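== Sequence and structure of one protein ==
=== Format: two labelled lines per protein ===
==== Data for this protein ====
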Amino acid sequence: MSIKTLEQYLPEHTFPFLKKWFSDYYIHIKITKNRNSKLGDYRRLPDKSHQITVNSTLDKQLFFFVLTHELAHLIAFEKFNFRISAHGREWKNTFTEMLLESLDIYTDDLKPIIYRFSKNPKANFMASPELVRYFHIENPEDNLVFIEDLLINDEFYYKGDVYLIMEKKKKLYLCINIKNSKKYLFRPLAKVEKRTIDEQK
């Protein structure tokens, strides 16, 4: 895919950054259907070229953010000859530099969020509450909620099982699976379906 074709998914004025970041590498960009499990990914192919995939349904600013994240993997791995961890210090430093370099791409209300994120980039988009909240689009037919919006002792459905919130442990929520009594930790922005009082009877 050419950069020109890619630009339709991106905010304005991204071409100079992409041209600079892409220039030294042979990259296959794939625009995919929506994937709930991930927003994008990077892999090195057997012929030593690179493949990056990004979900087509993303907001243009989020698409650029995800693309930057994946390109940071490529650049960091190439710079350090693949002798680094995927989301280690080298990747964080590379991603930080790219985010700060391209900060003006983002709208004024998003810039401070991106700037704060750049101080310590997270491997998982869901681990950044500010970004999740900024890009989250409410669906009136969506009955899912964030765990942090529930109360202790509330019950909820997750992947077909019923859980009860036992307590908050630092930033995570300790929950028990009602069926097998096993305990699990959930992130505050995990999306679950609240169990109503009528369902509990």
User: Anything to note?
Assistant: The beta strands are 27-32, 40-44, 50-55, 144-146, 155-158, 161-169, 172-177, 183-186, 191-194. The chain is about 30% helix and 25% strand. Helices lie at 3-6, 15-22, 60-79, 89-101, 111-118, 129-135, 197-200. The mean pLDDT is 89.
